[in-house]
Amino acid sequence: MVKPNQNDKNKFLYPRSRYYGQVKPETLVFNANLQEFSQKVSYITGLQTNGKLESDEAYEQIKILWKQLKRSKKELLIDNQPPAAS
Length: 86
What we know:
Layout: H1 6-13, H2 25-49, H3 55-75
């Protein structure tokens, strides 16, 4: 049997999508934070759906993650305006 390497496991457990927005350090960092948020929410909802986590606890965990994401956006000084069309 072929033994998967650690890199394959990480790609499966923590998939990353390509970034298509305006390339600036702060937007790249926020994109990474957003993908991490999405992955964690996916895990939490999976646990809740399978009965391993109560709905209220799942809600509270997602609420905390959301506040962290909002704080990171504010700290990175990313505005709410969409980029200008080229």
